[in-house]
Amino acid sequence: MNQHIAIPGTAIALFLACAMALVLTKQHIDMIDAPFYQEQRVLHDQVVSHTASSPYQYRVLQPAFVQGLLHMAPVSSAKARKRIFMAGYAAIRWISIVALLFFTYRALATSFSPGISLAGCLFIVFFLPFTYRYYYFQPTSILELACFGIALYAAMTRRPGILVPLALAGTLNRETMVFIPLVYFLYWMPDLKRIEWAHMGAAVLCWAAVFFGLRLLWPASAGLLDIRQYVLANTQVMRQQIDVALIFAPFLAVFLGKALPTRFFRLALFFLPWTALHFFTSQWWEVRYYLPALVCALPALACRFENNLMKFR
Asked: Residue 54 carries which DSSP code?
């Protein structure tokens, strides 16, 4: 009986994910891709020619795919190539958002009702347009977010075999995939099995192989990491701090209130090392950085929402 109920619920979730991804992708095209095409093309060309600054030099997955489309396209006009370029990145964005929402729904559905699980996905949808600011070319962020949605699914369904391919492919997109095994670790400690330790260790080794291998293959002539500069900017630029406050607000619901199930609370603690990393290595008012931590906090937030909903019944 439960199987017959779960199938339509999953189908509806997939349909909604596809529809919402179309809206969010179109919004990104209008706000970012179309106005900043020239700037995007410059950085894209630098990445595919291996002349970009670090870390963009090593985020090769999406530029390589789009460049492949441009090579295969039987067109030569600048207008047609612009359309292919934008369509390639838009397709990746749409697929990433669909994967994010679908796998997040499937993850939450292991512990919550379809309605609560859908509400958790809509919570992410609510924040996504808010993150479409302060940049002109960051396609890696949405694919990174999808990877963390899949990591949440791997943890909540206890499928450690997903970690290695996720780390391998994801690190070609962004170096933060080293945090993927941490999601699984936080959720299942101290009940981890030997095979799970093996999968997590293999995922870290795969990350290291890709991370250091790319740097040996294509050394960057310049790097953008300046911890002192980022710390000064993050503590002095007060105008954007309201953005940080808004994105941090949901985490208060995790840490304020009655005790949560241990697994959910531990997973929400992912927020701490993730925030520290981005405070020291990025402009932290670019709030897109914090959505992976929000995905990891969703089980705790869903639990809070469900408990409060019960009070009104």
From this structure: B
